[in-house]
Amino acid sequence: MTLLVVLTIVEIVLAVGVIAGYLIAIARRLDSIAGNLGKVAFGVRAIDTQTAAIGPAVTALNGELEAITGALPTVAELAERRASRSG
Fold first, then answer.
1. Looking at per-residue confidence, does 52 or 19 come out higher?
2. Domain tally, the chain
């Protein structure tokens, strides 16, 4: 009877040891992943900072392009008139 109790305790200690080992390995891997995610977040913030000026510039460019688009029919008509006079 005592042998079974001792073997059961040894088995439980081994099982707990294996589980603890896996948990330590998982914790190390998660720590590594957290470090990599921190680097990625830093890079994304840098990209956001570098490209912050694009939004307002695109808005201004779109306004200018709309003005050009509005003027194109008039320009085309003038070009046709001038071409018909020359030809």
1. 19
2. 2
How much is the pLDDT for 55?
87
| Per-residue pLDDT at 21 exceeds 80 | yes
Inter-CA distances, 25 with 6, 14, 22, Å: 29, 17, 5
Helices and strands: H and E segment counts in the chain: 2, 0
Clarify whether residues 14 and 45 are in a common domain.
Answer: yes
Let me know whether 58 and 86 are in one domain: yes
Range of the domain at 39: 1-52
Does 46 share its domain with 4?
A: yes
Whole-number Å distance between alpha carbons of 30 and 24? 10
Q: What's phi and psi for 52, nearest 5 deg?
A: -60, -30
Alpha carbons 19 and 41: distance in angstroms, whole number: 32
In three-state secondary structure terms, 31 is helix
